[in-house]
Each structure stands twice: as C-alpha cells, then as structure tokens.
Design brief:
2 helices; 5 strands
Length: about 140
Amino acid sequence: MWFRRKEVPWEVVDHKSVEQVPMYDEDEEIDVVRMSDNLMSYTYMHDIHNSKDMQNAIRTARYFLMQNMALKHYNILVSEGWRVTILRKGKSYRVEVTYSGRPAYAIGKLESHPAPPFMEVLEFYRRDLAIGCTSQR
C-alpha cells in the first residue's frame, strides 16, 4: 500500500537571522543583580500578507519571550537576537520567528525596553511580499 501526502507541504522560501547583540551601552546606568547562564527563546508562527506582518510577528515573539522570562523573575534582556524563516504553500505565506535573548534582573529606574535589533533587515522583503500577496488576491 502506498501512502501519498494529500496536503501540499510548506516550502521554505528564505531565512534571515540576527545574532545576539547587546541591548544596553556601558554608559547606561543599569544595575544588573543577576543574569541567566543560558539564553531563553520563544518560537512564534504567523500567517503574513506584507512586511509589516513580519515585523509584528517579531515583536509578538519578543513579547511572549519577555512574559516567559518574567515568570522566572527576570525583567530585561541584556542581549537579543532573532531568526525568521519564511514559508510558502501555494500562494499563502507564513513566518516562523524564534526570538532569543539573555535574561537578567536589574534594579533601579529602567527605561522602556529597546526596540528589537536590526528590524531593517526585513525591508528586503517589502517588495517581494507585496508582489506575492497581491497576486494571491
């Protein structure tokens, strides 16, 4: 008996990553009390229609990572990075984001969290996704 896959699989279109980068400068007054020995990460998958959806997926993955680290009593990420895999099935696109960082607990007045690093990398996809998504409608 032969088994055939009835559903078309998701095809990997592209992959981009931003390696871990420090999120705070040495001159910033942050008192780190303790830092995790390991990186933490969170993977998030989302259907996309344009490059803004990819940026939102990265921000959402970061948000959930920060929620998970808060459960472990950390309040900042001293380094952050992310990996994006773009998938296509027919005319549909999906993004898988893995956001990672080194959590720490800092005391004192903390400014708002910095934006995710190197979001400009996603501008590369603006035209390609616009063409692919408009052709599917």
